[in-house]
Fold each of these.
Amino acid sequence: MGNFMDNMGIVFALLGAALAVILSGMGSAYGVGVAGQAAAGVVTEDPSKFAKVLILQLLPGTQGIYGLLVAFIALSKMGLLGGGVQEMDAATGLLYLAACLPIAIVGLVSARYQGRTSVASIGIVAKKPEQFGKAMLFPAMVETYAILALLVSILAVSAL
């Protein structure tokens, strides 16, 4: 039992990195998926709109990238990417976990809502393709909160 407890710090830290990837990735998969369904419907009717709807579909995918970035930074700080794991107490591991949670949770939620907003914007492009620039603004506004969470997680992980 002592050996397990000695490793709790790295377990908590790895859990934080894993949640950053898993939750933000789940949100992005959902967002890109629903936007892709809407985009496919538009392209079926008018293949010339492919590039515009593809851009709108891809927007919710950034949260998954943000979660991956935070996880890489955390893994690097832990020493796991260099081949050697540093000793870590449970309190430090919990700090890593807490530092990864902003992008994990906000990434999950914002990507889902950004996907829904992208669906609405794809509807705009379907009917009025000349309004693409305006249509891009709606999902981009949701992105703002993912970027804020990314910054908090990067600053927090970097401070450890």
Note: The two ends are 27 Å apart (CA to CA).
Amino acid sequence: MNIYTIAIIVILVGLFLFSVVASFIRWNANRITVWFALKKLEIDKPILDYTRLILDENGLIDVEVKKVGFFASLFIGNTYRKKTKTIRLAWGTARRPSVTTLAKACELVGLAKLDSEGTKGLNSVLFTKYFGWLPILFLPLVIIGIIIDLISTSQLGIISIVFSAVGLLLTLIPFIVSLVSLKIERKALNYGKEIIYNMGILNEEEEKRINKLFIAWRKLYVVNTILNAFELIYFFLRLVFSLIGRK
């Protein structure tokens, strides 16, 4: 057993163990998100209107708020678009005043506030949301490259190497972007928490729930970024191992 095989085994074991921890953190974050989504706030406006109010109170009068349709809500969800200075709220978020929906709205206001301060890298949040799935293309690309090589030359060659390299690149880019996105999202969460507390519309118990929710989301963002790093290392070692194995 050579060093590359050992390295891959170590990475696989580490990835498995971390995946177990990551799965628990994700499950807990989703559980808290869903549970607090059921906790209706005693406020007299839908979140769409409150988002507009929060923006105005923070001097962000040039930022627009829109409610997206049902199908757009399923595939896009809640986003802040820097180019158009628009907060887009999912259908369910915009209408229901719950702990979760208010927290999400304030996080998006936090992104708008960071934009107004000239913070760089805001587009990384959208990129991660839309293209964070790209690493799953690594294995299909490797398989396609191998099939093309075997059909055309009856042995593995340049095509499989090129397709593997492309797959690795599609893993590397989202990882690099996710590092920037993590920093931005954590700042937005901190702003969102500060905004909510300054509004003074929540009672003590609701503030505790908001704080617990933000902590869960921060952990989730960190876990997702670390997991991307593990996947990148694993894919890289697989590529190196396959190249060495053919020598």
Note: The longest strand covers residues 64-67.
Amino acid sequence: MAMFERFASVYDELNVNQPPEEAAGFVLSHMGTQKGQLVDLACGTGKISAILAKKGYSVVGMDISEDMLNQAYSNCAAAGARVTFIKGDLRRFRLPHKMDCAVCICDGFNYLLSVKELNEGIENVRNNLKSGAKFIFDLSTCAKYERFLTKSTYTLDSDDSFLAWNSDYNTKTRLCVMSLTCFERVGNAYERFDEIHSQRAHTYNEVKEACEGKFRITGVYDGYTDKPADSESLRCVYVTEAI
């Protein structure tokens, strides 16, 4: 099974992400007062897209998973938020016109599995933005993978689903392979499905080199806080501006 197919239906229920309000609040505080056209890259189930749309942005949500996009459409409709959704790959998407700003929340760029793919993704985002556009994105760090995802197992459960999450992180390649087994209630029974997810921990220097000539990094933060990131940060949030 491809990534984020059946898993899309239980993603929000199992709360595998940080609260969307926290990330959206950070984005809003760093975007400034001027609203415009914003692309939410790797938008997932659309929770961030909905919040930003209701704050006045004209939002396009993009994701590589059709199932995630279907879930995002439902979430935004339920929230009364008008968002346009498109299917696309971070490395190759093309928008009809350049956007005023962009965000990529919750590990989207960690799914780019090499320096080459990271460079392609950063360059492609730049090609779809106006000069001076803000671009805010996050990355799970080496510290996070080493501390929590090296040969580890987690379980998450709710009233209607149960997830077993096994991960194995290689400190040399900085690649993490995660095997997900989920049981979802369907009527009076449970159906099992499995997915494999792969991510890579990109270093600050790799991100800096990828941004060179494309984005100016104006801040790197410890998660969605005002604290500067350091070697112990589990998630780095990059605030950048298109050159």
Note: Residues 66-79 form the longest helix (14 residues).
Amino acid sequence: MAKVTFLTDVCKGCGLCVTACPKKIIRIATEKLNKKGHSPAEITDQEKCIACAFCATMCPDCVITVEK
């Protein structure tokens, strides 16, 4: 099973990972802010992840790690 993790304190919430995900299981959090005051990205359903790593490839700040 794939595992996706985000360094939420570094994420600026740009949303590139959201648009890159073919399974549409990443969203920008609406209820929380990180240390920098941004709403970070989060995964909504870890079970549906196919470990394609499109999200990690698109992230300009390299805050996403995908493990198979």
Note: The radius of gyration is 11 Å.
